[in-house]
Structure formats: C-alpha cells, structure tokens
Amino acid sequence: MRIGWRNQAFQSLNGVGLGLLGLATCFPIYYVLVVSLADPAEFAQKRWLLWPDHWSFDAYRYLLSTDAFLRSVGNSAFLATVGTALSLIVTAMLAYPLSRRRMRGRRKVLLFVLITILFSPGLIPAYMLVRQLGLIDSIWALIIPSLANGWSVLLMKSFFESIPADLDESAAMDGANDVRIWFSVILPLSMPALAAFGLFYAVGYWNQFFSALIYLNDSTKWPIQVLLQNMLLSANNAALDAYDVSAAPPPSEMLKMAAVIVATVPIVLVYPFLQKHFAKGAMVGSIKG
C-alpha cells in the first residue's frame, strides 16, 4: 500500500518527537550516573559534566565505608526479601480458597476484601493499630500492615480461577489433601502470577518511605529511601555517620548522586530474572477461561 506524504510526514514527526521525549526522560538518569562516577577534583572545578575527563569510584567507596549507608541498605534488603516472601504467601493463601466455590463463607470474605479496596481507614487509625500491636519503632511495622492488599488478592484469585478445577479433583482422587494440592499442583502453575506480584511487592517494600517516617524513630532502622531523603535535604555529609571521618569525603552532590544509583540498581537487576514470567503475570485477571 502506498503511503501518502502526509502520513509519512506524520510518522517522521512522531518518531522525532518520541525520540526527543525518550532523550529528555533518560538524560536525568545519565547525568546522575556521570556525576556519581566523576573525579571529585574535576567536579569541584566544573560543577557541570556531560562526560568527565577522568572517572572515579570515590563517591561509591565513601558511601560503602559508612555505617549508616550500609545499615540502611541492609534494612531495605530485609524489607524487600522477607516482606515480599511473606506477602506472596499471605496473598496466595487467601486468594486460592476464594477462587474455589466450595469454600464456606466465600461471599462474606470477598465482601470484606472488597471493602478494604473501596474504603481506606486513614492515617490515624492505621497508626493506632500499629501502636496497639507494639510495632512502633520496629521494622516489622513496615511489613505486617502491608502483607496483602485487596486488589492483589482479587487479581490472584482471578488467576487461580483460570486453573481448571479438574486438577484439584484429580489430585484429591489420588489422595492429596488441600495443602498438598496447593503446594504440589497450584503453586507450580502460578509462577507467572507469583513473579509479577513478587516484583510489585519488592518494589513497594524497597521504596518504603512514608511509613518509615511515621513508625520509625530510631535512625539505625531507617530504610535507604529515608536516609537518601535526609542526604538530599542536608547540605553536608552529616547524615552518613562515616566510619573513617579522617578521609576527605567527595562533594556532597556526588555522594547524593551515588546514593540515588545504589538505591535504584537492585530493583533494576531483579527484573531480568523475572522477565520470562512477568509478561504473562502482567495479564493476571484480564483473561478468564
């Protein structure tokens, strides 16, 4: 088919516009990476770098030699791993019974799940609940109240409903109980959904910020996002509490850029391992049958 010059012009302009938009989106990431890897002396002289003459890992070495930064990375890693694992277990254990019509009281439980989606308790009731549980100033305050959410439960329920119930009946005829069916039959078939929700949960736990500000008073329990916020607001490196304060630190702007990269890279590295499952899991609940 012949394409008119107007369509060709539109496609060309569309391609140029999308290319410029992509460059505008990627440039801040590029600049942050370049500044974090620049030589401190060169950065102190120029203050604006697009391609340094000399590269250096001094900012990363300084960050990784500080107690506060390593501790915050460890806290975020704990949240992302333990929190994601527990959230997947709780979500799957709640969604699977709800997907089977033989469950007694299924409609009432579904109504309770739906209410949590439509109505939010608010900040003050949530804080009072965490305080009554004795979780104030505990890292578990960032995990236990967020173990599952109604939207994830409903989506995973839809995925379980797409698995034929005949598989359950066949396994039951072979003598398997409900727990054995769930572990041996359902979960192996649910890897796409678990991978997709696992990535969503991991990103959420890794980026914990507002809840940490509310529930955590001890700075040693801060996740990396809270420490990064304190670094970005401070004009010096006081928030880092360095082991070796005798060493001259790089400029604070370089440390901030390096901290942003370190806070971003772990989640970016996780995605390739889940990519083969993520494409299928992203469609969870959209197609039934």
UniProtKB/TrEMBL annotation:
**Membrane topology annotation:** Multi-pass membrane protein
Task: Enumerate the transmembrane spans.
Answer: 12-33, 77-97, 109-127, 139-160, 181-203, 254-274
A Pfam family hit: BPD_transp_1
The answer to keyword Transport applying to this record is: yes
Mainly resides where?
membrane
| Highest taxon, organism lineage | Bacteria
Family under the similarity heading: Belongs to the binding-protein-dependent transport system permease family.
Q: List, alphabetically, the SUPFAM superfamilies matched.
A: MetI-like
Q: Give the species this sequence originates from.
A: Paenibacillus favisporus
Sorted alphabetically, which InterPro entries does this protein's record hold?
Answer: MetI-like, MetI-like_sf
Give the UniProt keywords, A-Z: Cell membrane, Membrane, Transmembrane, Transmembrane helix, Transport
Protein localization: Cell membrane
Q: What is this protein called?
A: Aldouronate transport system permease protein
Q: Which CDD domains match?
A: TM_PBP2 (cd06261)
Segments forming domain ABC transmembrane type-1 = 73-275
UniProt keyword Membrane present: yes
